[in-house]
Amino acid sequence: MSLADTCRIGWQQARWVCDPQSLDFQCTDELAPLDHFIGQDRALEALRFGLEVNRPGYNLFVTGLTGTGKASIIRTHLERVVAELKDREDREPRPAIKDWCYVHNFDDPDRPNVLSLPQGMGKALRTRLSETLRELQTEIPKVFKSEAYLSQQRQLEEAGRQATQKIMAELEQAAKEASFAIQIAPAGVSLFPLADNKPLTHEEYQGLSPEERKALDDRRSQLMQQTQETLMRIRDVERDAADKMRALERVAADEQVAMNYRELVDTYQDVPVLRDFLTHLIEYVLDNLYLFREAEGQGESPVPVPHRPGTGAVVARNPFIPFEVNVLVDNSGVATVPVVIEPNPNWGNLFGRIERRAVMGTYFSDHTMLKAGSVHLANGGYLVFNARDMLAYPGVWEGLKRVIRNRAITLEDPAELGGFFVPQGLRPQPVPLDVKVIITGDEMLYRLFTGVDYEDFWDLFKVKAEFDSRIELSPENLKAYCAFICRTCAQDNLLQLDASAAAQVLEHAARLVADQTKLSARFGQIKDLLIESDHWARQDASPRVSAKHVGQALDHKMYRLNLIEDRLQELIAEGTLLLSMTGAAVGQVNGLAVYDLGDFAFGLPARITAQTFAGHSRVINIERESALSGPSHSKGVLILSGYLGATYGQQQPLTLSVSLCFEQSYQPVDGDSASCAELYAILSSLSGLPLKQSIAVTGSVNQRGEVQPIGGVNEKIEGVYEVCRRAGLTGDQGVMIPRQNVKNLMLREDVVAAIREGRFHIYAVTTVDEGIELLTGRPAGRRQPDGAYPFGAVNHLVEQRLRELNQTMRGYYGALLGPAT
After folding, report:
1. Whole-model pTM?
2. What's the pLDDT score for residue 199?
3. First to last CA, the chain
4. From start to end of 218-351, where are the E strands?
């Protein structure tokens, strides 16, 4: 058997085929919908561990590609954890769920107090206080209109008037004795000297002798001092009367206020923080009874309303704001623990907001304008959001770290944190925090966090749950996959699949991961395929989806995406891109490249050429010299120098220069999957043996000459097949791949059919020697005991050429240096 027959793989190895007969159903509607997760045991165990360990820092970072079901699994798993907590609640005590409220701070209104109340009490308290305020506004005015109160008020007013009149009478008597009249006006006090009980005119005053004028002025001064003392006594009397009036108001209203609040105080007697708040609120009412005397027939004041002097507190805008309870977090509808999934984790949505109201050209804020964020709502439970969404908002990550580390959340204005001026900034009391944070993202983001913010990230997110994008292709997983198809069709109102369609979906799942032993765990892509297959089935008015409809969905998706591939294939077919899949050529081989467009990838052959000549053992990578070579491709080219030196430079120095080029390539080239093809081109150029152009080559090579596996093998083979198909299959065309990539073959059915019919071939090799023998049709040759290669073998011809180049360089340098002296 020839080497070609040994390396050629059969069509059975070119694709894993799912036999519809092996499936235990005729249609997926016969199956029970999937009720568990497929092949994510590692991630589920990590999730379970992270959720069960209730210690600081044991938050979770969940990684995995989009479409692997991270969000669905987290949501479902949290529901299970919550259900388990509910089942264990009779046996194991758990922290009680609380409502969180902000209330007025009577000592400092700019620093609202936070209250922790039993679950469901927040809304009830807000309603009760609102009702109590309305009762006070109705009942207190009645107290002040009662006959008993009015009688005592009149007595106090009469006593005040009598005391004032008595003091004024004493002053008037003193003035009369001093022959003066007193006139008290808002502008001040005036004293007029009298003569015969009549005011003394200016002329009469000027007609008095100096001694009489001096005596008159002295009496005026004494009387003015007595007048000032009298006014001070009157003010003291009025102040005393006002104090007695307020005391009367307080005594009169005290019983009514106590009666209105008695039920509230009794109800919340066992909640100390609330009892203290109610005590302060009762004192506030009794200290500001004038508000209720004036409240009848008045609405809320839209402008700042000052307190009377000495009442202790200052309230802007609405003087009844202390009666307002801001129920920041209402957990009355939470059964076990809160679970919050935040779709847009910006600062306000996560940490809450301090709102403001514009009043008369300025801004005011109070505790009623504090709004909760997701962190508040998830307090005592679980918070889930996406890392990439969070990083779109500056400052959120730093804020999150601070909140988790301090185990408390303070409502802050992000503008103030940035150093900007904020009108009337409130400083609410922090809310104690106990929350499990679950962040989702991909592996790249995880590495970003661990690389840039290593210390903080590891300290706060100690648990990583990694979702795999592939699962084992086992009988159990095949059944579960079909059950997933059943559930998806039922949930999204799609037509169910027959066995042939389900088998084709399973094959596509294996093709997505390019592995005959794995299935794709990116169920989002599988769901898309089910939706598109449903569309084509409904176009046919079919009662269920068949294999034909799945094929239509796949073909149409490719048709939507492969415009660039089609244009490049046309350029090859018309000869614009120079490529030959027939004949043989020296120093020339067809390599393979993959073009990744993000949502679509395709392979295409590319001509690789090598030129060898005398030089100083240098491999010139034209792509690198023109800045079109990526690091992996440059590494692959440098490895070739190691192989050449190890194979042919043990007994003589290599005086060789090589020029390598991807012909007609004007885009960056990366990856080392062309290193095998480049080496074959070099060996062909050195040996003078032509290479078969009908066999395209892919594979990486190491310094020992071993062929290593590469990626994108299916796309590369299909790209070569498409070029050959358009030009006409000759029966000797094919692709050479590393043997380790055989298990990655999930080729299209038309390619498999061409392999089965002998019109196209795939060769699997393990060493460079096998590959060069297939391409040249001549043995590579191994070193014999005497150290030489067999005559006529590829390696013999290469070594012979290298010897010639060595002699050429020796002769050149000898002639250059001249004869020795």
Report:
1. 0.78
2. 74
3. 61
4. 326-329, 339-341
